[in-house]
UniProtKB/TrEMBL annotation, chains A, B, C, D:
Source organism of this protein record: Lactiplantibacillus songbeiensis
Record protein name field: TetR/AcrR family transcriptional regulator
Gene3D superfamilies recorded: Tetracycline Repressor, domain 2
UniProt keyword terms in alphabetical order: DNA-binding
InterPro entries referenced in this protein's UniProt entry, alphabetically: Homeodomain-like_sf (IPR009057), HTH-type_Tx_Regulator (IPR050624), HTH_TetR (IPR001647)
Signal peptide limits: none
DNA-binding region: 29-48
UniProt keyword annotation of Zinc present: no
Ranges for domain HTH tetR-type: 6-66
Length: 200, 200, 200, 200
DNA sequence: CATGAATGAGAATTCATTCAT
DNA sequence: CATGAATGAATTCTCATTCAT
């Protein structure tokens, strides 16, 4: 229950990520997590109220890690289109470097139960910054004037999917592939005329 | 082990879909499926070799159902862009009418284990037809010249996601919403100049 | 879940009684019951929905067994006072012969949780007969005109307690002891004048 | 291990009583007691050697509290029959005012394990006084000449049961009910002729 | 074919108790 | 003294699968 002291907390989260990435939710158990973390199973309950709390934490952590990675590379002085394209690139690089985190996010996003009682804490700094970028883009007439969640969907999930596909061999690992992906996503989210302009 | 006899086979698949749609893979068990189908647990093994075989079948079935629905509405005589846009519309309507099937597809698509040993049988008629449409679009310079799997991804997953979002209240249920979605997807998959043309 | 086939069901109940009688509710576990019954623990769930269902059944069974024993010896032709005194004697003998059943009843009666969701099925034949005896006694002006539950309490619990006390050595095991007990109970439940008459 | 220091000791006992009264022995744990008392779990072991020691203490405490309440109202100058009747009344009032204490006593009295290694310390002042009252009554030919424990049983347990029954709605909460109860108990424990006399 | 029963493995939790700080 | 952390045992229950009838 207490998060206080040590690295065991982190070990558990890392173990959970590894487990979720390779086995999915169906094969996820506190027993396995604990074993992977090299910790007696019952100790897991010192750090997390229950299995669900661990999953919640893993979800928040992975999402946050990814947000941080994207935001860190953001050049807020640059034009919005540039920022958007760069954020895709950054996210792709992140996905390549941390495939387990991305796999975990995908697995958890698909969970029906998780969705029910879990609302992403939208209040962290990094998320705010991305949200700001998008609302700015919207107001500047750069982004299509549709639901922001939908735009975010296009900005992230195809990237995750592509990165996973590259890793599994479904997609070829070429520079052109990423370029294509970016153009597709931009074509989806930008206002048509802005997209034309951005292309050149 | 044989599929021969009866409607219990279908009952099991329907039960599995309902279960997966509402509880996800983690809550899926042969016990529950059998109970939901009103069939003795052990009888499940008459129709399916094991749990995994049931899941495989469910995956094939749901994917196939969806393909059939899309293809059924396809007007092969129409211009490719029209066919594409219509297929999105059809798929969206299908998702609205069969939310459980779509939820099941999403859940199973996210499963890491399933991916490993499961290759979609690409040989059914409906899939061929869609594949043909896409290769035609590619060769005609209508679609972006990138991996067909990626184009298929853009053609389906955002639709599933949007439909689910509408149902959960995340997205508003307006005609404009669907129009936006179609334009986004088309913007993603069409060659830019074709897209411009299609817009008008 | 199914009670159908065999003696394992009974073995489990007997094991539960033995366990409750010697260890109380706090030491009662499905693990121990199953072990005592010589059955794999998980098999317990074939016969009982869960632990509580087993306890409920044990409660009903023990209560019923005791009712049957008392009613079996009842001479419905005899005067009511005689019947009452005899039922006490019978109950005492039963308690001596089946100390575990009585101990189990006492243990379960004291359980706070059990009380909440458990209502004795008052509809069995034997219970009806006792109830009839008491209402008859009430209408004949033989029993004190107070709540029947209270009268039943006096007719049973002191007997259980006395029998247990005799067995544990708290009370001496003499014929006089039982006579005293019967007189006390009769003094409690009979109308004073009837009691006087009965005494002689 | 020492009782010395503080009110936390009492808090633990009160918490234990509350827990036993509402959940019974089966749901009793040091974890819950400590939480209810607002004390770190491990601190419980500062005040009590182990779980059993806590239960023993709770038993002694509740029994003692109840004895004190009864004795406090005792008018040793009054006739023994009056004292007995009054003690029942007092005990009933106590049971109404402290239902948790009474429930705890009942729960602990039913515990098989507790009985084994627990002998009430019969040496406290209040207990002596009650014992004196009873032996006096015995020698004066007022009480039936039977085991004193049995008489004590009749003097207390029906009262507890009745009070609990009133609270749970099993018995109606009327003045007549209490009067009936007292007459029943007196009928049980008094010599028949004394009882007759007491009635008038 | 159909099915109830069986079963060992694992699942999530809770617990009583100890110990180092 | 006080306390958070630790831990192994135990508990309830579910599961996937097999088998005898």
């Amino acid at each position: 229950m207490k998060i206080k002291d040590d690295q065991k907390y982190d070990r558990l989260i890392q173990a959970a990520i590894a487990l979720l990435a390779t086995g999915g939710l169906a094969n996820f158990s506190t027993t396995k997590v604990a074993k992977q973390a090299g910790i007696p199973q019952s100790n897991l309950y010192i750090y997390f109220k229950n299995k669900q709390a661990l999953l919640d934490t893993v979800f928040q952590t992975t999402i946050h890690t990814q947000s941080v990675a994207v935001v860190a590379e953001l050049d807020t002085a640059a034009p919005i289109t540039i920022q958007l394209a760069n954020s895709i690139k950054t996210l792709y690089r992140f996905s390549q470097e941390h495939p387990q985190i991305v796999a975990t996010i995908q697995v958890l996003m698909a969970d029906v139960q998780l969705k029910k009682h879990l609302h992403l804490k939208q209040d962290d700094h990094e998320n705010q910054q991305i949200q700001t970028l998008l609302t700015d883009g919207l107001q500047a007439g750069i982004l299509r004037s549709t639901d922001l969640n939908l735009i975010r969907y296009f900005l992230t999930r195809p990237v995750f999917n592509y990165a996973a596909g590259v890793q599994s061999g479904l997609y070829p690992d070429t520079a052109q592939g990423l370029t294509d992906l970016i153009q597709m996503i931009m074509g989806a989210i930008l206002q048509p005329d802005v997209y034309q302009e951005w292309l050149s």
